Amino acid sequence: MKKFLVILLIAVVSVGTSFSQNSIAHIDSQKILDTMPSRKAAMKEVENFEKRAIKELQETQQKLQEEFTILQQDKTMSSTARKFEEDRLNKKAQEFQQRQQELDQQIQILSQELNRPILARLQKAVDIVSKAEKLNYVLDASSLLYSNGNDITNKVIVEVLKLEQEAAASAKVEEE
Predict the structure, then answer these.
(1) What CATH number matches the domain at 23-175, 3.50.50.60, 3.30.910.20, 3.40.50.720, 3.40.640.10?
(2) Which of 4, 60, 101, 116 is 20 to 30 A from 78 in CA distance terms?
(3) Residue ranges of domains in the chain
(4) Which of 116, 126, 120, 115 has the alpha carbon at shortest distance from 27?
């Protein structure tokens, strides 16, 4: 029995020691992203593209609707001509749906392309702060049920803004 208690005590101390060696912190990634000028610019660009796409689709849909209405009101058209016109309008409706899907995909691709460097800078900032703070794990607060521990969000914001300035400066040099 004494042997069992000694082994149990050693196991508990070992587990406790290993947990104390692991440093954990959390960040609020949404708060960090909201402070990034490049993220705001990317969101604005996606929003503008989306507005143009919606305008295009609304105009196309309105024209298509008008043509369907005219067809329905035209009582002088022969059945063969009506059939050809219905086929033509149905084909236009299918093209409209394809264009809608195409624009949705383009918006998604644009968003991914614009967000890729932003997320890379966020990751790099987290890496910098994690190394400086000697952290083993950094969790996003949005995925935690409870977070009252080491919050490094503000430190990451400082680093990410430095990285943003560097990226803006290098982009300016490339333009010249």
Answers:
(1) 3.30.910.20
(2) 60
(3) 23-175
(4) 126
Query: Phi/psi at 146 (nearest 5 deg)?
Result: -150, 135
Radius of gyration of the chain (CA): 29
The count of residues in the chain is 176
CA–CA dist 38, 165 (Å, integer): 10
pTM for this entry: 0.74
**CA 120, 126, 129: angle at the middle one, nearest 5?**
140
Element (H or E) spanning 28, and its range? none
Task: Tell me how far apart the alpha carbons of residues 28 and 143 are, in angstroms, rounded to a whole number.
Answer: 10
